[in-house]
Write a structure and sequence with these properties.
Layout (H helix, E strand, L loop, with lengths): L1 H5 L4 H29 L8 H27 L2 H6 L2 H24 L6 H9 L5 H12 L8 H30 L29 H11 L5 H16 L1 H4 L2 H14 L1 H8 L6 H11 L2 H11 L11 H29 L8 H12 L4 H10 L2 H30 L1
Helix pairs in contact: 2-7, 2-15, 2-19, 3-8, 3-12, 3-14, 3-15, 5-6, 5-8, 5-16, 6-16, 7-8, 8-12, 8-18, 15-18, 16-17, 16-19, 17-19, 18-19
Length: 406
């Protein structure tokens, strides 16, 4: 670390490190601002209905294309075995972040019905888009501590891509369920219409298990085959299998399966292969995912970043929890895994990517899911302020990570 900071001008290198953390966030703000401009009353070509359709396009087509093309090219069976801790790190980070978010939400008591919303926006970080842009900017610096530009970029992109499929599963299962609307069916509730505890409305989730039990009880005399069928239908509905098997997750499974088979990998993902035109088409579509989702999120800020119902106290707590409390927990997870021998020896880029996964601002994709669930305005406001303060926090954490690794 001393060599990295002292050589080539010392302070200049430190300034370059800080610049690496700031520039990706500046790019995010630029695209969000353009979305804000397109949704404003002066232009008005990106209304609320258009933003919802754009989010649907991202999750149904653009994100699966990005995951399939990047992950399929990066992964092999041997690498899947060597990199097994990357998805575990994402899961551990989600659990640790959610626990911290639960503590934060319990202490500050956010307005109804944003308790689970607060937990999610503290617990779910951006493990793909921002780290990918940030790492690319880092590797372009000839003085970066991870080797030549090509090696640095190739390794970093592969590690980040391998973690994205787990993030997609977490988003479409855990986050999608946690951001479900309240029993009233909407997040836009007036104080006079707040629910009374112990008196749920008809059709609320609290009554569904009772109805299910009545249906099962009425079929006690049915045949064994009928009981099995009813049980499978019940489990299918309870586990939300159809909801879990969404396009991003299907794309992840296909990419892992094809990447693990050398013949199929060469046939589809090799640049001179006969089927590479298909992969190249997906790469082009996948590159549109980040700008499209940022345009939609920027459009959600058309009413202003302070227009949400969260309030200053809840917003401040989410920012503090995500950017200050979560990263130290991530450092503990990575250092413990390293001490236990779970990480590839002498691979500093591997460790750096793991640490980055814990220090990112709230995921913009969780904001997109919030928009689909009806709380997009509050999520956009949180993302706005989290990314502003992430400019400073990310710079500090990156300097600390370089100090730990070197």
């Amino acid at each position: 670390m001393q060599r990295f900071l002292i050589e080539n001008g010392g302070g200049e290198s430190l300034l370059g490190t800080i610049k690496i953390a700031v520039l990706p966030i500046a790019k995010v703000f630029t695209m969000c601002f353009l979305g804000f401009l397109m949704a404003s009353k002066y232009v008005n070509i990106l209304p609320a209905s258009g933003r919802k359709l754009l989010n649907g396009l991202v999750f149904s087509l653009l994100l699966p294309c990005l995951i399939f093309s990047q992950l399929g090219q990066a992964v092999t069976l041997q690498k899947m075995i060597e990199w097994w801790f990357i998805p575990i790190n994402v899961i551990c980070g989600t659990i640790a972040g959610s626990l911290i978010g639960l503590v934060v939400a319990t202490i500050i008591r956010p307005p109804y019905p944003f308790f689970k919303f607060t937990v999610i926006h503290v617990g779910i970080g951006n493990i793909g888009n921002v780290p990918l842009v940030l790492l690319t900017a880092l590797c372009r610096d000839q003085n970066n501590p991870f080797g030549d530009v090509d090696t640095c970029t190739q390794q970093g992109t592969a590690y980040i891509s391998f973690g994205q499929w787990v993030g997609a599963i977490v988003l479409y299962t855990y986050v999608f369920q946690m951001l479900a609307p309240p029993p009233e069916g909407t997040f836009d509730l007036d104080e006079q219409h707040l629910p009374i505890k112990g008196c749920p409305k008809d059709g609320s989730p609290e009554q569904v298990p009772l109805l299910t039990q009545e249906v099962l009880s009425s079929d006690l005399n049915a045949s064994k085959q009928g009981k099995i069928k009813d049980f499978l239908v019940y489990m299918y509905d309870k586990l939300k299998i159809k909801q879990i098997l969404q396009p991003p997750i299907i794309a992840s499974i296909l990419a892992l399966a094809i990447g693990a088979i050398p013949f199929l990998k060469k046939l589809i993902f090799t640049p001179n292969a006969p089927l590479f035109f298909f992969t190249d088409s997906l790469i082009i579509l996948g590159e549109a995912m980040i700008p499209c989702i940022l345009l939609a999120l920027g459009g959600n800020l058309v009413d202003g970043p302070g227009s949400s119902k969260l309030g200053l106290r809840t917003t401040t707590a989410i920012i503090f929890g995500r950017l200050v409390l979560v990263p130290p927990a991530g450092i503990g997870i990575v250092l413990l895994a390293d001490k236990l021998g779970f990480l590839p020896p002498d691979d500093k880029m591997f460790r750096f990517v793991l640490l980055l996964q814990h220090s990112m601002p709230t995921s913009v994709l969780s904001g997109a899911i919030a928009n689909l669930r009806g709380c997009g305005r509050e999520s956009a406001a949180v993302l706005f302020w989290v990314h502003i303060f992430a400019i400073f926090s990310m710079a500090g954490w990156i300097v600390l990570y370089l100090h730990i690794l070197f």
